[in-house]
Structure formats: structure tokens, C-alpha cells
Amino acid sequence: MTDAKTNEPIPFAAVTITGTTMGAATDGDGKFVILNVPPGTYTIGAQVVGYQGVRKSNIGVSVDYTTTIDFSLKESAVELDVVEVRANATH
Predict the structure, then answer these.
(1) DSSP states along 48-68
(2) Which residues, given as ranges, of the chain have pLDDT below 50?
(3) 86 domain-assigned
């Protein structure tokens, strides 16, 4: 998994197979492995804070064959709600 603009690896991104509990996190080189996926056709999603999530559909998985999927994520602004904290000093 890489940054779409810089082509740098993105570590610690979550990669999931939609509709299952299977998934993985990318390593320091942006690589991931999901083992023991039954044969079939899947939608695979990737997301990490600070980037737009991506889904790829119609990913075929076959017995005894490694399926390689490359994700390129675009940066996105992280917008957080403003939290106001007020304290009353009492002495």
C-alpha cells in the first residue's frame, strides 16, 4: 500500500475482506498478507487515518494461488469536531 502522491509505503493501514472477519494490517513497507482465504470472489477494503478509504471489487481467490492487490491511497483532511472545555476555579 502506498501514498498516491509520494509513492511512499503506508504502514499500519487496515485491510479487510468485506463480509468476513478476515483482514490484516500493513507492515512498515506497506505490505500485508491475509492467509487461509477460501476460494471465491471478494471485495477488499483499505483504510487508515489521514487517507481516503478504498475498496476493490471482484477480487478472485483461487486454491494454491497468491492473489496480489496493490492499493494507492490519497491523503484526506481529518476533520474533528471542536470540543470546548470550561473549568470553574473555586478556592
Answers:
(1) -TTB--EEEEEEEE-TT-PPP
(2) none
(3) no
User: 65: number of CA atoms within 13 Å, CB side?
Assistant: 10
Give the cell for residue 64. 494454491
Can you give 18-54 as a three-state secondary structure string? CCCCCEEECCCCCCCCCCCCCCEEEEEEEECCCECCE
Its domain, for residue 66, covers 2-73
Is 65 inside any structural domain? yes
Kindly state whether residue 81 falls inside one of the protein's structural domains: no
Q: What is the pLDDT of residue 80?
A: 65
- Please list the residues that pair with 31 across neighbouring strands: none
Cell (9 digits) for 1 = 500500500
The Cα 1–Cα 4 span in angstroms is 9
Q: Does residue 91 fall inside a structural domain? A: no
Task: Give first-to-last CA distance, the chain, whole Å.
Answer: 55
* Residue 60, domain CATH: 2.60.40.1120
